[in-house]
């Protein structure tokens, strides 16, 4: 009986040690969450990244909904003043990190509303595009860095009021390491905003079969197996990252009108807002 208990304790200890080693590895290897194939694929889109009528028009049309998602979330957590909502000062004095910013489509939109925005991306080509475009607009509220979130967190722990990673998580293999480092960049009480496809038959049909077959999305952009379900994402954030989930909302895209809208169903895509524990 005693031997059985000792063996059980030993097994639990080994599991705990393995988890600690795994966590250490996923946090310390800088390039762990960066996939070279994904970076190259998105870098190849640099020439038409800012063409709102081109292959990335779905990303451009998504912007109004993404911006309102972030503003409403910050308003609900009382991080921004209600009187500023709907003005060019909506995000005034809010320090925001856009992780996986690409060519800066969302980053610029947030900066235009007064946010102090930093965009990071592992693609050198896309950061160059983002920088060049912000110079044209003379937007001084943006800083861009060609680095991963693992690199960024080393000198930016608990630095941001809000972090947004939109249409990025589905391209990351090591989601635990990625999310842990994102949350480490947040101030206590800060907000994390995520939009990503669900891993369902509906999303496979909508995103992979219809989206990429009929060129609504550039071919080869997604690997369905990398998609994450809302309950899986929520578990990582709440159990491993010490965050509280505030909301999970379904997203719907109509490829024929190129319009995004909110929906009660998360079967295809969803937006999650979480807050880091204080």
Describe the structure.
The protein is α/β, with parallel strands linked by helices and 278 residues long. The protein has two domains: 30 residues; 243 residues, Rossmann fold (3-Layer(aba) Sandwich). It is built from nine helices and eight strands. An eight-stranded mixed sheet has the order 3-2-1-4-5-8-6-7. Strand 6 and strand 7 form a beta hairpin. Helix 3 packs across helix 4. The radius of gyration is 19 Å and the shape is globular. The N terminus is likely disordered. It is a peripheral membrane protein. Its EC number is 2.1.1.64, 2.1.1.-, 2.1.1.114. Belongs to the class I-like SAM-binding methyltransferase superfamily. UbiG/COQ3 family.
Fold topology:
Elements: H1 2-28, H2 36-43, H3 57-76, E1 95-99, H4 105-111, E2 116-120, H5 124-137, E3 142-145, H6 149-152, E4 160-166, H7 175-185, E5 186-197, H8 201-213, H9 230-240, E6 243-254, E7 259-263, E8 269-276
Helix pairs in contact: 3-4
């Amino acid at each position: 009986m005693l031997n059985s208990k000792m063996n059980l304790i030993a097994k639990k200890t080994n599991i705990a040690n393995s988890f600690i080693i795994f966590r250490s590895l996923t946090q310390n290897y800088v390039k762990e969450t960066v996939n070279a194939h994904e970076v190259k694929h998105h870098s190849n889109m640099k020439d038409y990244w800012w063409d709102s009528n081109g292959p990335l028009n779905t990303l451009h049309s998504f912007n109004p909904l993404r911006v309102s998602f972030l503003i409403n979330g910050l308003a609900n957590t009382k991080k921004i003043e209600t009187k500023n909502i709907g003005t060019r000062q909506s995000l005034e004095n809010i320090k925001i990190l856009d992780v996986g910013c690409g060519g800066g489509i969302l980053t610029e939109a947030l900066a235009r509303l007064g946010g102090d925005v930093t965009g990071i991306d592992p693609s050198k080509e896309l950061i160059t595009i983002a920088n060049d475009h912000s110079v044209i607009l003379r937007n001084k509220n943006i800083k861009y860095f060609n680095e991963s979130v693992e690199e960024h967190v080393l000198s930016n722990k608990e630095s941001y009021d809000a972090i947004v990673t939109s249409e990025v998580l589905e391209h990351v293999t090591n989601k635990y390491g990625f999310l842990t480092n994102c949350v480490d960049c947040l101030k206590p009480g800060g907000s994390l905003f995520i939009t990503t496809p669900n891993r369902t038959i509906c999303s496979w049909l909508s995103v992979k079969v219809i989206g990429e077959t009929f060129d609504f999305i550039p071919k080869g952009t997604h690997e369905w197996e990398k998609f994450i379900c809302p309950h899986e994402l929520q578990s990582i954030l709440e159990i491993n990252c010490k965050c509280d989930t505030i909301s999970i909302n379904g997203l719907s895209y109509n490829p024929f009108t190129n319009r995004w809208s909110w929906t009660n169903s998360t079967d295809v895509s969803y937006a999650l807002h979480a807050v880091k524990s204080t």
